[in-house]
Amino acid sequence: METRVAVMSIIVEKGDTVEKLNAILHDYGEFIIGRMGIPYREKNINIISIAIDAPQDTIAALSGKIGRLDGVSVKTAYSGVITNE
C-alpha cells in the first residue's frame, strides 16, 4: 500500500461542529501522526493542524468529510514522498 505524508489545516468557525469533527478524526486515528489545536478566543474560532500518513484516497476522504461540516474549512498540503508499506 502506498502512503503519503500530508498536513491538514482546519479552521472551525462554529463551536457546535467540534464534536462531529472529533468523531471523524477519531475514525481516522490510525493514520494521524500528530494533532495540534489552538483556540483563538478573541476571534471565537479554533485552528487545528493534523499531520497524517495514509493512502492518497484516505487523505482525500478525510478532507472531504471535514469540509462538509458546517462552519469548517480545510486545506491539505501533500509531501512528494510516497512510501510503500
Explain this structure.
With 85 residues, the chain is of the alpha+beta class. The protein has one domain (2-84): ACT-like. Chain A, domain 2 (Alpha-Beta Plaits, 2-Layer Sandwich), CATH 3.30.70. It is 26% helix and 51% strand. It is built from two helices and four strands; from the N terminus they run E-H-E-E-H-E. It has helices at 18-27, 56-67; strands spanning 2-12, 32-40, 45-54, 72-84. The radius of gyration is 13 Å and the shape is elongated.
Summarize the topology.
Elements: E1 2-12, H1 18-27, E2 32-40, E3 45-54, H2 56-67, E4 72-84
Provide tags for this entry:
85 residues; alpha+beta
Structure summary:
With 85 residues, the chain is an alpha+beta fold. The protein contains two helices and four strands; from the N terminus they run βαββαβ.
Average pLDDT rating: 96
CATH architecture: 2-Layer Sandwich
State the major sheet. 4 strands, antiparallel
Specify the helix fraction band: 25-40%
Secondary structure tally: strands? 4
What is the spatial order of strands in the main beta sheet? 2-3-1-4
Radius of gyration: 13 Å
> Can you tell me the CATH superfamily?
ACT-like. Chain A, domain 2
Q: Helix-strand pattern, N to C?
A: EHEEHE
Unreliable residue stretches: none
Count of DSSP-assigned helices = 2
CATH class reads: Alpha Beta
Indicate the proportion of strand residues.
Answer: over 45%
How many domains in all? 1
Shape by Cα distribution: elongated
